[in-house]
Amino acid sequence: MKNYNSAADLVDLAQYPITDLHGQEGYAFAERCRQQYLETGLCALPEFIRPEALEVLVEEANAVSGEAYFCKNVHNAYLTEDNPNLAPDDIARRQEHTYVGSVPYDRIGRDTQLCELYHWDPLKDFIGHVLDKKQFYRFADPLGACSINVFVDGGEHGWHFDESEFTVTLMLQPPESGGIFEYVPMIRGLDNEKEIVTNVLNGDRKNVVELPFSAGTLLIFGGNQTIHRVTRVEGNRPRLVPVLCFAERPDLTNSESVRQLFWGRSGSESESRI
Q1: Which residue of 38, 127, 166, 204 sits 20 to 30 Å from the alpha carbon of 45, by its own alpha carbon?
Q2: Residue 6 three-state SS
Q3: pLDDT digits 0-9 by tens, 66-120
Q4: In the chain, where are the structural domains located?
Q5: What is the rounded CA–CA span in Å between residue 99 and residue 87?
Q6: Count of CB atoms situated within 10 Å of the CB of 211
Q7: What CATH number belongs to 7-263?
């Protein structure tokens, strides 16, 4: 397996000039991405990873996919606890199904190309610019800083709004079938939000958008304003999507309960690899 000397070698910098945000070309590009994010709730960059480099990242992810901890649960679209005081037909009581695995950060070797990319400052700075964050840091969580979502046959992520303001993901390997990222953009807080959510959960496709989330695509997504889901995966090839986490504070981590939910433990088993 080829080892690239720098994370810069992984990215198609001719198409995506993110290394010099102070230069005219880099700044103009980052500003266009910022506007796309503001207008649509996401910024998708297809073929962000060069084809040869993508092969390396896919091989790395498949090598550790067996380390994934799988979570199977039900939840409402708002990821809140069920409230029995609400009417039985209230949309906040409708249950969606999620089945997904996640390889934690401490099971991904620091010498991997994925970790090289995550620790590459130009990528962090570019994402921070798109999100208009004056202070921007890599996540300090020992398990959730950089993880890999693994959707095997039957895997899915039901309709929901994210609790976090934004997520950054990288599609490495689509499944044989299914695993489509669907969303209804920027509806949180609208006067008819509840009506839209009700219609979506009842199967209304009128406002649903399918994202062409092809291999090598970097996605910056404002998931707490946009309801979204991943449709059920079918086949033997898992859907592999690293999640690159950042924060506005240098010491921010997940709670122990969140770590327990997504990785089955609250702390790192290999502090030396973080």
Answers
A1: 204
A2: coil
A3: 999 999 999 999 999 999 999 988 999 999 999 999 999 999 999 999 999 999 9
A4: 7-263
A5: 27
A6: 16
A7: 2.60.120.620
